Amino acid sequence: MVSTEGKLLIGGAAVGLAALVGVVALTQKAAAGTGQMTLSAPASDTVGTPITVTATYTVNGQPVSGATLYLFYYYSASPVTASSIPSTSFTLVSSATTNSNGQASWEFTPTEAGYYYLVASNTNPPS
User: Fold this and answer.
1) Partners of 43 in the beta sheet?
2) Of 62 and 77, which is predicted with more confidence?
């Protein structure tokens, strides 16, 4: 199986549980170029409100069914460059299995204003 990651940035900078959290989805191809994972999530959220994060996993353009994917997060009070976060710094949220469309979903709840970097990977820990 090709190792691939998708990264998702959730950011916000307000005070209290009503703080808005913005969401931007990023995509990263596997080094071999055959596997790809994309992440999607709502464009905005509030702290303490769960969001649904969905990954779509394909290899050679075809959905991968029955794959175990893992969702990890890294929190920072201020923005950082996503590529500078060591993979060992991410915390596991949970795993999910892809359906026939190559999709897996998780629920994630931001607990405070700041920046949440989410990584979906088919390896645990993420590579």
Assistant:
1) none
2) 62
